[in-house]
Amino acid sequence: MTTIPPGATIGILGGGQLGRMLGVAAAQLGYRIHVFAPESGPANDIASAFTRAGYLEQDELIAFARTCDVVTYEFENVPLAALAAIADRVPIRPGVKALEIAQVRTSEKNFVRELGGRTAPFAAVNSLAELEAAIAEIGTPSILKTVSMGYDGKGQVRLNAADQAAEAWEAVKGAPSILEGFVEFSHEFSILIARGPDGEVATWAAPWNLHKEGILDLSRVPAPREIAEQAEEAFELAKKVADATEYVGVLTLEFFATADGPVFNEMAPRVHNSGHWTIEGAETSQFENHVRAICGLPLGSTELTAKKAEMENLIGADVDRWPEFLAEPGAHLHLYGKRESRPGRKMGHVTRLRR
């Protein structure tokens, strides 16, 4: 692949905080960014150019692609049709295959199983009758998830008994879904892997992820022993996924640490919330290595810069504590510039280093 040198323009589909942090990393390496999104957001604030249009507005997409030397995306729900509209005009990285797989939970889990990964028991559900049959097979407690468009606990309903089927089906509004059985686990963790166009791979320490009300609250490295003992097997699966999809960029796989080994939960074909600690906590952040990968540059070192690192999400009103975080020794505050604080909304994060 021809190297895309500094001074070129990176197109980003999506205008959220991940696009913002990608843009900051790109600017440090001398790149410009052009954001394409249906509404103004955090990424637009630091972009060299911004196109406000819907993802299915083909003329606008083509005009956007003409200004870019490479295009990436910052969230996994970009319509595949948007990529198809520009695929013959500009390189798109990570590409279409991983995005297509990640957009459908059943496809994602079947793909990982074919590569030898473990998953929770699951069944596709397209009607109330199918949900009742799946509950009879998998049992409860279990969780009903829409097959697409769910994140941060959205599009998910927990079932504690079989007689909750009708209520759960109504809660997901009859959307195509998947019923997943619960697994016994000690910790949740993720593997972030950066893959270059030549197959070169780099990975960071696996963070221990702690959630609150379905949203990531804390990520910590180094992880407890239970995770450390399973991280290598999880990394090998992540590498298989990256190789099988000819992935270019940062890929994230989430896991449960169980008595039988790592159990795959879900994948994100993008930079990830659980990797925000890498901005200060690693020699090269997930955002910089994503830029390096999609532009064909050598990947940077992922070694820790401190003995311990922690990322805390600032959700909703947490952002009002910014003076406290600025006064805290060893803390690094990142605010996303969102104009309105709402419950459940990610407003920023704090990284803490312990040297």
UniProtKB/TrEMBL annotation:
Keywords: ATP-binding, Ligase, Nucleotide-binding, Purine biosynthesis. It holds the Pfam family ATP-grasp. This is N5-carboxyaminoimidazole ribonucleotide synthase. It catalyses: 5-amino-1-(5-phospho-beta-D-ribosyl)imidazole + hydrogencarbonate + ATP = 5-carboxyamino-1-(5-phospho-D-ribosyl)imidazole + ADP + phosphate + 2 H(+). PROSITE patterns: ATP_GRASP. Its EC number is 6.3.4.18. Homodimer. Coiled coil: none annotated. Pathway: Purine metabolism; IMP biosynthesis via de novo pathway; 5-amino-1-(5-phospho-D-ribosyl)imidazole-4-carboxylate from 5-amino-1-(5-phospho-D-ribosyl)imidazole (N5-CAIR route): step 1/2. Residues 109-295 form the ATP-grasp domain. PANTHER family: PHOSPHORIBOSYLAMINOIMIDAZOLE CARBOXYLASE (PTHR11609:SF5), PURINE BIOSYNTHESIS PROTEIN 6/7, PUR6/7 (PTHR11609). Belongs to the PurK/PurT family. One of its GO terms (molecular function) is 5-(carboxyamino)imidazole ribonucleotide synthase activity. ATP binds at residues 105, 145, 150-156, 180-183, 188, 211, 265-266. Catalyzes the ATP-dependent conversion of 5-aminoimidazole ribonucleotide (AIR) and HCO(3)(-) to N5-carboxyaminoimidazole ribonucleotide (N5-CAIR). Catalyzes the ATP-dependent conversion of 5-aminoimidazole ribonucleotide (AIR) and HCO(3)- to N5-carboxyaminoimidazole ribonucleotide (N5-CAIR). The keyword Ligase applies.
